[in-house]
Design goal:
alpha/beta; Rossmann fold; 2 domains; seven-stranded mixed beta sheet; 14 strands; 44% helix; globular
């Protein structure tokens, strides 16, 4: 009996210590969700999201938090899959402590989560989804990256007026991102007389591209436009070069990943990519971000890291100025509707139109000696760039400066 009481006494003592410890750990925090493809084919994008978000949160907390309250992040893996994205949106939205969500990366995932965020009244701020329809009809959905109609128009103009090509083939991922970028490109190509001699589609888990590449080779295009992501593009490039196809390739921002070069090797040399950010281009604060990121993680940040970093900073500003209330945060961001009210981040100025869309100037990059570097000609070399930046009624922005 005495042994039993000793056990009970010890149990109470341990419980008291545990409760005391939990009490210390339960300090109030402001919770923000971050979701993206942390596993799967787009894992490198998700990893860049995660690292940049953590870095920004740590910087905020080291500077005293948000009005003295620490910022806490909750990460949810959507695996780049729309069904999983709807689940992660539900998990984050149903947690009343989650004040806002940074994500998703894939357009199909942002679209899948949009109705959930709308119904639960929680802000979704995407640093990566570029499909034209992502923000349409979603009062709670915003993005701090440009739309595909702008990017698609620009690529068509750049191919014809800067690179001097007249006949192109299109190889596109049959998902929301791939189709949306392809559609915008095709619309502009038709307007300016850029002939599309062949279109081929693929799905995300495709491994063999020889049949489509053979069809493209038969049409002898001046260039091939890949409207998809880096994992598939690396296989396309490798198989194309193995077939002896030396035609130049160009792609949208989905190709911007160091894994494109790692996986494709020499086959990636000379590939041209449009993107919203390059580590070697930007002002002092951008270069500080790049330096700090490299020091912390031992790798260079990509565009998605920069945009995720800015997205966390933008949400933190909204919490600080509007308070820890979901609707107040959403309304604060919606009111950032002019350059004067915008958020000046490492990836440029962010402000929104009535649909929640923003416009970022494009940078043109090329793979040279195994790295993405600024292409020799940039937007200012293209007179029509000023026409394309105002596409779809978005706020007009001056084209980016070249290197």
């Amino acid at each position: 009996m005495r042994m039993t009481w000793r056990i009970v006494a010890i149990t109470f003592a341990v419980a008291a210590l545990t409760m005391g410890g939990c009490g210390k750990k339960s300090k109030e925090t402001y919770l923000v969700g971050v979701t993206g493809p942390f596993t799967g084919d787009g894992a490198q994008y998700g990893e860049m999201f995660r690292m940049a978000a953590e870095m920004k949160a740590d910087e905020i907390n080291e500077a005293g938090g948000i009005n003295g309250i620490p910022l806490e992040l909750e990460f949810q893996d959507d695996k780049g899959d729309p069904k999983e994205a709807a689940n992660t949106a539900q998990k984050l939205g149903s947690n009343p402590r989650v004040l806002a969500v940074v994500g998703h990366f894939n357009s199909s995932c942002s679209l899948a989560g949009k109705e959930v965020y709308n119904s639960m009244g929680v802000l979704q701020l995407s640093p990566g989804s570029t499909n034209v329809t992502v923000c349409e009809g979603g009062d709670w959905t915003f993005r701090n990256v440009y739309r595909d109609d702008f990017q698609g128009y620009f690529i068509a103009d750049f191919l014809k007026y800067v690179m001097g090509y007249n006949r192109v083939a299109v190889f596109f991922d049959n998902d929301d991102y791939g189709r949306g970028l392809r559609d915008a490109f095709a619309e502009r190509a038709n307007e300016i007389g850029l002939e599309i001699v062949e279109e081929e589609a693929y799905v995300r888990d495709t491994q063999e591209y020889t049949p489509q590449l053979t069809q493209i080779m038969a049409k002898n295009p001046d260039a091939i436009f890949i409207s998809g992501l880096y994992a598939n593009a690396a296989m396309i490039l490798t198989q194309a070069r193995n077939l002896g196809l030396e035609t130049p390739f160009i792609g949208g921002d989905g190709l911007l990943s160091s894994d494109l070069v790692t996986n494709a090797g020499k086959a990636a040399e000379g590939v041209v990519v449009t993107c919203p950010f390059l580590p070697t281009v930007g002002e002092e604060k951008t270069q500080k971000f790049v330096k700090d990121f490299e020091a912390r993680y031992g790798t260079e940040p990509d565009a998605w890291a920069a945009l995720a970093y800015d997205a966390v900073g933008l949400v933190a500003e909204a919490i600080r100025e509007a308070g820890p209330d979901r609707k107040a945060i959403r309304d604060y961001i919606a009111a950032m509707d002019s350059p004067e009210k915008g958020y000046d981040g490492v990836a440029g100025l962010t402000y929104f139109n009535a649909d929640g869309d923003t416009m970022k100037p494009l940078i043109v990059a090329v793979v040279k000696d195994g790295a993405f570097v600024p292409y020799e000609k940039q937007a200012e070399d293209l007179e029509l760039a000023k026409e394309t930046v105002s596409v779809a009624g978005t706020a007009e922005v001056e084209p980016t400066e070249g290197s």
